[in-house]
Amino acid sequence: MSSKVIELPIQPHIKKFLIHELGESPITCNQSNIAGRQLLNLIVKKSNVVKEESGLDTIKLKLSSDLYIHKSRLLKQAVSGKAYEDYFKIALRNFVHGCAPFLGSRKKAISIFMEKYNISPFELNIDSVERSFHDRKNCNYTVPRKVYQSDLYDSLVENNNKLRTVVSQMSRCLDTISNF
Asked: Do 129 and 92 sit in the same domain of this protein?
């Protein structure tokens, strides 16, 4: 299958994220990899009016022929800067939900995510990202208290004691069976 390279408008912070996650430009896109499936999401989005975003960067994508046939639709949708935005948001949300309990706050988790992907506060405002976690309707997520090493130690000791009990019961059963 032949492939062609296009330049797709993209938000600068999402470009940094993509290059870190998917490799250097041009990123290979086909229907069987994550980069291509995310483009398919952009193609099927129902949006008749696309507001052109300013301050966009571009990223080179190497499209397989089955995606290249949708080039005009991709470029039309991409001028809004929404390309790969869902992929970025899911990764951010998963990172924050996974780290916030250990760090004690969402803001710390967001700033670590931004450092990991070399995203500056000028490209993405930490406070607005944090507010987006509160804007979701019916979101019952709260940041649990910080997990301390002593809590983990107590839990490990308790689990170890349970395991010892189970092992001793199993060894008694094996002794009983071997005596028959």
From this structure: yes
